[in-house]
Design brief:
This protein has 97 residues and is mainly α. It is 88% helix and 0% strand. The protein has four helices and no strands. Helix 2 (18-30) runs antiparallel to helix 3. The radius of gyration is 24 Å and the shape is flat. The two termini are 33 Å apart.
């Protein structure tokens, strides 16, 4: 692997995004460790919880719609999924042994 590309990737990973830079700057200039901690925790929780909530609600809605439209096929799909799961597991066991 070329060293230059590796170092470029590492430097990109260590560079914070613009909103994170603003939070870090605000925390550093606040003068209070507790206020800086609350800014960091608030940003972190917002960055994790907001997308999780949006994707979770969207997925729940999509799953409900899918379940409503697949009523008569549900039992067949469950059996097919179980058989596929068993076949893949046996294939994995036989390759490992």
């Amino acid at each position: 692997m070329p060293t230059g590309l590796y170092l470029a990737g590492v430097s990109m990973a260590l560079t914070p995004c613009a909103p994170m830079s603003i939070v870090l700057f605000s925390a550093a200039t606040s003068g209070s460790p507790c206020w800086g901690l609350s800014l960091g925790l608030g940003f972190g929780l917002g960055a994790v919880l907001a997308p999780s909530l949006v994707y979770g609600l969207g997925f729940a809605y999509f799953a409900g719609q899918l379940r409503a439209h697949l009523g008569k096929w549900q039992s067949r799909l469950e059996i097919l999924s179980a058989v596929l799961f068993i076949v893949l597991g046996l294939n994995h066991i036989l390759k490992a042994g």
